[in-house]
Amino acid sequence: MLRNRVSKLAAATAAGAMLMAAAACGGSDAKTETGASASSEPAAAKAKVGLAYDIGGRGDQSFNDAAAAGLDKAKAEFGLETNELETTPGETDAQKEERLRLLASTGFNPIIAVGFAYSGSVKKVAAEFPDVKFAIIDDADATGPNVSNLVFAEEQGSFLVGAAAALKSKKGNVGFVGGVEVPLIQKFEAGFVAGAKAVKSDIKIQTKYLSQPPDFTGFNDPAKGKTAAQGMYDAGADVVYQAAGGSGGGVFEAAKDAGAMAIGVDSDQAKTADKAVADVIITSMLKKIDVAVYDYLKNFVGGSVKAGESRYDLKAGGVDFSTTGGKVDDIKSQLDEYKNKIINGEITVSATP
């Protein structure tokens, strides 16, 4: 992003030093929860919360910042002590494990891991610390009696912004830029394509992923995001949706240069993106990570955390579209109609392209 900040935390030893030195203090309840039984022990009066960010950390204006917003709300409301660490580009699973292990061994409970890249690490470290509660965002594979999985119906929210793109496009040509081609980001693509085609069956949809696993730099490369979007605008697109984390800032720059439109993701990016490019954002797919993090911490403080999956979909208010700036006011009634059809089951959105 234009203001993106990447951590200088380069290794597990550095993470440990940071952890020992920096243990400083600084929605909606509607959701469907499944999983194991509630915690049998009440939470401490003042919980010590460890939060491990994905690449970019605070300041990415998107995914991580949404998690931070939920943490900040819970911290203010419940008087929590917090410690925040973040992933560095190219680090190993062993380094992620050590970050979580250090948090757990120095009294942080619960620990929240932001992003599916922590899946294997959470599963392993949670088993080592059965008395510590763990939560992971965007992953249902890391399971255990002390692990809560906070997942979202990204395909449903993406359907709505796909419909918005098709309704706003004057050229019948739109684009999707994904950060890394993994099943999670393919959910965004699948929903976007389905929504656009629901409006205009013959619409042209360009798709580009910035990197392939195990290369996850596509989530933190604004220059690559800009190049990908420029190619789409040059090829006739007039609206591009990005699900690319910190790379999304480059997509907004390309839209600005082309005099075109863009769609944000995760947060309401018309509010969070650099002011120089924010006016190109017609809507954002809201993925309410802040609500999920806040809910989890509220439940922890109340002694009612449950293991297993909590899914935040349209019906639960976990995903939606933004209206900041009024650029979709003229089509809002149509988008709301699609939204209601998804909620009542009239439309089923596939999670795969």
Automatic annotation (TrEMBL):
- Provide the primary localization: membrane
Q: Does the keyword Phosphoprotein apply?
A: no
Protein name as catalogued: BMP family protein
Whether Lipoprotein counts among this entry's keywords is yes
Compartments it resides in: Cell membrane
CDD domains named in the record: PBP1_PrnA-like
PANTHER family given in the database record: ABC TRANSPORTER GUANOSINE-BINDING PROTEIN NUPN (PTHR34296:SF2), TRANSCRIPTIONAL ACTIVATOR PROTEIN MED (PTHR34296)
Q: Write one Pfam family the protein is assigned to.
A: Bmp
- Similarity comment text for this entry: Belongs to the BMP lipoprotein family.
